[in-house]
Automatic annotation (TrEMBL):
<dbReference type="InterPro" id="IPR000086">
    <property type="entry name" value="NUDIX_hydrolase_dom"/>
</dbReference>
<dbReference type="InterPro" id="IPR015797">
    <property type="entry name" value="NUDIX_hydrolase-like_dom_sf"/>
</dbReference>
<dbReference type="Pfam" id="PF00293">
    <property type="entry name" value="NUDIX"/>
</dbReference>
<protein>
    <recommendedName>
        <fullName>Nudix hydrolase domain-containing protein</fullName>
    </recommendedName>
</protein>
<feature type="domain" description="Nudix hydrolase">
    <location>
        <begin position="32"/>
        <end position="170"/>
    </location>
</feature>
Amino acid sequence: MNQTIKRVKNMGVVPLSKWIPNVLFQTIQKNTPIPCVDLLPVRKAKNGKFEMLLIKRKIYPEEGKWGLVGGRILKDELTKETIKRQATEEFGVSVKILPPWTEITPFAVFNDPVSDKQKHFVVLTFLVIITKGKIKESGLEWSIAQWFPMNNLPSPFSFHHKKVLAVLAKYINKNPLSL
């Protein structure tokens, strides 16, 4: 395992450089909304249809469910840095935010105080395209990453991710994506 990462049940994956005592972390997480970023990589398949990359989680909570890669925005980290870090650490790739969105205008914002057993999160969701690299076979938090067409999604979904995909489907029906 990467020496700069430590995994603790009920705490997820936390860089050691940002480590705080467990009791303090649990208190903060219980009482304060946590800002996060989710990445939804998209592409055009060979048949010209739109596909999205989903992961199957292998850690608590939501183990065995499908969803998006994402994580906390760390102290002193800009949103664009979180996007880059998540893409690199989780998938081993570089990404670009799909226009017309930018690092200050995400595709969607979800404020869901109940879907995660650990915390109340506020998630900025970004549609991204992979610009460089090959997707890892597995990651610290997931066992499988797989491309799915919009009309053939797996289940069950983790956290609020089913809502994200419903918003995306509604958007695409009105505004086809230019990939």
